[in-house]
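We read letters as residues; the fold follows as tokens. A sample entry reads:
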Amino acid sequence: MKRFFSLLFLSIFYLIGILAQDTTYYYSSNGRYEESFAQAKMQKKLTRKSEKKVNIKRLVLHDNIWKEEANSCIKSIDETHHKISNKNEGIFSKKIIREFEKTDGDIIHFKEYYDDKLIRSGSTTSLIPLVLEDTLKVYFPNRQLKSVSIYENNQLISNENWNNDGSKYIDNIFYSVDETPEYSLGQEHFKYYILKSIQDAKIDLGQYNDKIVLAWVVMEDGSIQGVRRVSGKSAGLSNFLIELIESLEGNWIPAELNGEIVRYFMKIPFNFAHHTEGFDNIELSGGMLIWD
């Protein structure tokens, strides 16, 4: 009997060890899979909590420091549905339902819903993590089409893009590249220009408590186009900042991917809090669209 319980204990211990074991996937620019950690710019760490539950932690390399960018829990509901909970500020929120259909080949078709609204549909060769293949469609909350992208082995090849009102946006933009654009006059000049323009306009920052994220596309010739607000509550202040970016002097060294100059979608956060008069956290960076 003792031997039986000893074997049972060891079997359970071994099973728990297998379930809790991490599997790490490495990626470089544009979702390209890498075998070695040395080439990685992004990691996905998968921890299987049970037969039906997997946690995915995404880490991105910023200034040679690995920072956690997202933490998701994927739970199997049945043979055709997953529930995805994205961790935000210590709690799991924004639950997404992923519906999928396996084909006779390697391709799996999927649709994702948030609040019963379709937000994304496409094809993949893997459910956890996704390995995008062929066409991916993304929708705005109002169900307008936001983008139609073509992927090959998880790498973005091309895309068409629209604004929220249905008007056309810039096509063939990339979110992750080998060399990001550089502002010709430097980041410090960029900060000074924004602060001085706000001071000259006599805008009282004390009345704002908001995080505004602006975005634009750095084109192949180093010019910028398509400046728009991605998030933020203060429409008036956002429009003022958009005008500043559109009037910004200097140009940009364009982005490079696989040795070619490409269009790059750049996102900049502006944090406004009561009694704050600086932008020490402004960083000229890009937005990576990497899906779990």
User: Anything to note?
Assistant: Residues 2-20, 287-292 have pLDDT under 50 and may be disordered.
